């Protein structure tokens, strides 16, 4: 692109042509390139400016009161229409509601395990404590997803929860190992469901939802899987009976 060349007086705020006619309007300083001519007694500057730069200085590039007239930015007036909703697809909304149901289902199973190990003829207080806390944690996950749903202008829709088993006895493995293996499978299933939500978010270009799932759930889920995998491995070592009692004591005093 050819550049026009002008003289610039150090003492004048405006550039002038060689025939001393002023350049009007003066271009903004950010659009000019000034080069000090070394050796000049009057310290003149050379101003390199393109005709496009001058025209850009006079045009408005952002007109908010025009742009908010677009349909997607108008504030809805119907009473039941969400006000905060933006770039939030129905598929994402449904995926969050499904994940809420997953978390509640897992919470329900863990609560049933708590009730089993708290029985008077089982009396494994450490396992009861562990599964009670796990149940509460899954419910907190469901609530976190509910809050997110509302933040995005979605609507929480609670699905039915299937009743879990109430007995966790297993002739070969014993109840402690059987319950912990079941917990490991449930945590892996939860992780798989979370990855599904993450895929839905990416499919819909919903970077905010993808970031939410990744930062608030996926790392914790991987750590939960590792923790329970460790317990399964240790319970396989100790077998049934006395070893389980010691393991229960460890869980009971685990902070
Ligand atoms: Fe969870």
Automatic annotation (TrEMBL):
Question: This protein is called what?
Answer: Ferritin
Iron found in the keyword field:
yes
Q: What is the similarity comment for this entry?
A: Belongs to the ferritin family.
Q: Which organism is it from?
A: Acacia crassicarpa
Quote the Gene3D superfamilies the UniProt record gives. 1.20.1260.10
What reaction does this enzyme carry out catalytically?
A: 4 Fe(2+) + O2 + 4 H(+) = 4 Fe(3+) + 2 H2O
Quote the record's binding site residues for Fe cation: 103, 138, 141, 187, 221
Instruction: Tell me its EC number(s), please.
Output: 1.16.3.1
Q: Where is the Ferritin-like diiron domain?
A: 86-239
Q: Which domain of life is it from?
A: Eukaryota
Q: Name one GO biological process term.
A: response to oxidative stress
Q: Tell me any Pfam family this protein matches.
A: Ferritin
């Amino acid at each position: 692109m050819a550049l026009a060349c002008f003289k610039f007086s150090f003492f004048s705020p405006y550039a002038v042509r060689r025939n001393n006619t002023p350049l009007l309007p003066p271009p903004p300083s950010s659009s000019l390139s000034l080069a000090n001519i070394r050796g000049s007694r009057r310290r003149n500057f050379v101003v390199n400016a393109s005709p496009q730069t001058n025209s850009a200085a006079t045009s408005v590039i952002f007109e908010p009161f025009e742009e908010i007239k677009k349909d997607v930015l108008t504030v809805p007036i119907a009473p039941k229409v969400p006000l905060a909703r933006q770039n939030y697809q129905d598929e994402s909304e449904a995926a969050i509601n499904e994940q809420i149901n997953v978390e509640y289902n897992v919470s329900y199973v863990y609560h049933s395990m708590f009730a089993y190990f708290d029985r008077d003829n089982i009396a494994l207080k450490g396992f009861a404590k562990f599964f009670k806390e796990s149940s509460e944690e899954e419910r907190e996950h469901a609530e976190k997803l509910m809050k997110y749903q509302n933040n995005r202008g979605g609507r929480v829709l609670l699905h039915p929860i299937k009743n879990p088993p109430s007995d966790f006895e297993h002739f070969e493995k014993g109840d402690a190992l059987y319950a912990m293996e079941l917990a490991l499978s449930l945590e892996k299933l939860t992780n798989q469901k979370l990855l599904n939500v993450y895929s839905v978010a990416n499919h819909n270009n919903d970077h905010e939802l993808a970031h939410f799932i990744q930062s608030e759930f996926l790392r914790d889920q991987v750590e939960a899987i590792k923790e329970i995998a460790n317990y399964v491995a240790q319970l396989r070592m100790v077998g049934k009976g006395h070893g389980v009692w010691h393991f229960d004591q460890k869980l009971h005093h685990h902070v």
